Amino acid sequence: MIGFDPMASERHPRSYKIVVFFERREDGGLRAWSEQVPGFLLSHRSADAVLSDVQPALEGILSAQLGYEIKTTPLHDIKDALTDCGVLEPSPEHIPDHVEYAALAA
Known about the structure:
Elements: E1 15-24, E2 30-33, E3 41-44, H1 47-66, E4 70-74, H2 78-84, E5 99-105
Antiparallel strand pairs: 1-2, 1-5, 2-3, 4-5
């Protein structure tokens, strides 16, 4: 799971750090996943589509797994990071290998 006991309602953690990995697809699209969140995998030909889906997907999966509402926020502006590395350019050469997210009990 993500390193804690979700059934311990007396000890709901207030925040977690989730690492989301990004990888360029062979067709120019983008893939995102997290080893800490089972079931979280996004892939689309449009990098913007993947980027816009990361936060709501994390929130939905984590909320369902933990049994209480979770809100997430990137710890760094993901679009800026991917632009800086050339991912959002027509012929990118580098992408960050991960972006960290904070997950907070709502």
